[in-house]
Amino acid sequence: DEAIELAELAKRMGIKANEMIAKLMGMGVMATVNQTIDYDTASLVAAEFDFEVEKASFEEEALLNVVPEEEDKSALETCPPVVTIMGHVDHGKTSLLDVIRKSKITSGEAGGITQHIGAYNVETANGGRITFLDTPGHAAFTAMRSRGAQVTDIVILVVAADDGVMPQTVEAINHAKAAGVPVVVAVNKMDKAGADPDRIMRELAEHDLLAEDWGGNVIFVKVSAKSGEGIDELLEMVLLQAEVLELRANADRKAMGYVVESRLDIGRGAVATVLVKQGTLKDGDPIVCGLHSGHIRAMIDDSGNRVESAGPSTPVEIVGLAGVPDAGDEFVAVASDKDAKQIAAHRMQKQRAKELAKKSRANLQKMFENL
Ligand code: GDP
Ligand code: MG
């Protein structure tokens, strides 16, 4: 599974793709520009041009091209949806996250007290599972997306029933649209005297969010974060929406996923909360995360328990990285510590080259300005 596109290899070696095709032909290998060639073939042809192929960069290519579609479909299992709560300030995002967190049904451990690790997983009354990112706010959502991390599967849009659609409501709708993420509307504060859910439905219809009751396909749920009314229904509706999305992942492979939060801890060093998207992350796994490498020295779940492994859609705090990654950075588990180090070094190098190029561009510009 270690492979690289012929065109990419040629580019990295600074030779023409045609030259490489010709050389391969001379070696008895028929290839086209868009074809992927394996590590062994690449090493041989590279040697012909006096290049040595590092296995690390190959693994990076292979790992970064985690394309579930290419996988054995029978290995795919349904996984919990990952949900972000968005909405206008004071409409009840934090209150909703709190009441949902408190409703967390525990499987015996730790008394159900969730640790703040940036995300948590709940079991619904009907036994379904949902993962919530508990960093509400549009900034986090866009920051992740700008790094190419598609972490959220469903957005819960909170609108206060006594207030209506406000500027940040519209902003949230636009973020969800841009990301192609479906919206489930939580009409909150239903306990309040001035609650007018019909008005919310009307106003949202103007933004292309047409309620099912009105012939559209958007799920609306009336809730109160204060009384707890409608919360169970909201969770079940999120699962219904998730069913439509057919979210599936292969747990039986090396893990990949994204950083949700990170920080430097005085005692433990770099600490990151990651969300596993594919595969199963295991204690001791060598990993590359952003520009950093390391291996999992400890994994802590959202109840504060140490765990040995974490499957798809599971958030865990990990310890063992050599440096602090950024939110939205991708992580991948690799075969060995050596590979992890090589890939990280390779990325650092690329990063430095990029910065140097930027600096020299700036210098050039300054030169011109001074002429
Ligand atoms: P956020 O800015 O969207 O995170 O909103 P908060 O969760 O901080 O809520 C803003 C205010 O609305 C707080 O004073 C909450 O106690 C209150 N609030 C949130 N949900 C409800 C609700 O369902 N009913 C009532 N009556 N008040 C609520
Ligand atoms: Mg808040």
From TrEMBL:
Keywords: Coiled coil, Cytoplasm, GTP-binding, Initiation factor, Nucleotide-binding, Protein biosynthesis. GTP binds at residues 87-94, 134-138, 188-191. It comes from the Bacteria. It is found in: Cytoplasm. GO terms for cellular component: cytosol. Residues 78-246 form the Tr-type G domain. GO terms for molecular function: GTP binding; GTPase activity; translation initiation factor activity. Its main location: cytoplasm. Belongs to the TRAFAC class translation factor GTPase superfamily. Classic translation factor GTPase family. IF-2 subfamily. One of the essential components for the initiation of protein synthesis. Protects formylmethionyl-tRNA from spontaneous hydrolysis and promotes its binding to the 30S ribosomal subunits. Also involved in the hydrolysis of GTP during the formation of the 70S ribosomal complex. This is Translation initiation factor IF-2. The chain holds residues 416 to 786 of 994 of the full protein.
